[in-house]
Write the structure tokens for this entry.
Amino acid sequence: MRYFIDLSYRGTAFHGWQVQPNAHTVQAEMQQALSTVLQAGTEVVGSGRTDTGVHAFQQIAHFDVDEELDCDKIAFRLNGLLPETVGIKQILPVYPTAHARFDAVSRTYHYHIHKQKNPFKEGLSYFYSRKLNIDKIDEAIELIKNWKNFQAFSKVHTDVAHFDCDIFAAEWKETNEGHLFSVSANRFLRGMVRAIVGTLLDVGLEKISNGDLQEILESGNRSNAGRAVPPQGLYLQEVKYPKSIYLDS
């Protein structure tokens, strides 16, 4: 049987999601805890990678077992074993062909910025106090929403078949504490959201125009885009799947 795990984690202390040699990762913690609870070596497959320092309000991973599980009991036991920075929300049975990565229909990321120095935001948001032209940022987002090839915002030497992404929604909001950028798409390239935010900050500072942004996108050259903003402001916020993959749908 196959199960989906709905989990969240604070990425500050982790070298990202994916297992790496000699590195503390969320996937490694999950596999160790699951293997202990199930008393058998168990691999988990996530909906996608998050980089070092990036958080997840919702990450989805799947795993396989030979028998039916008491999902609430397994979730309780996992939460007792995992560090305080990782939490299991629920475990759900899915069809054996369901895949946490390939069956996701959309992913949403949030990027948090606070404008005043705040020790309670340290590691969880990006402190950035410069004044921004939000109207220019909104215009830039409209351009990005209608674009397709995001090679200019992708980390170089990335092993992907193509750089096309379908942006379903994108919005820059001013909040009581600062700014929130939200973006949803069918897929994201490595480093894409942090590069977009860095470039939007340049637009908001009026260092580059929206005409410049179009040239950057057309170029497909990462070095032409803005810097990657720090990882601590980035959250994998939500991953959506078709209801038909769940056994209780």
Q: What stands out?
A: The first helix runs from residue 26 to 38. The longest strand covers residues 55-64. The radius of gyration is 19 Å.
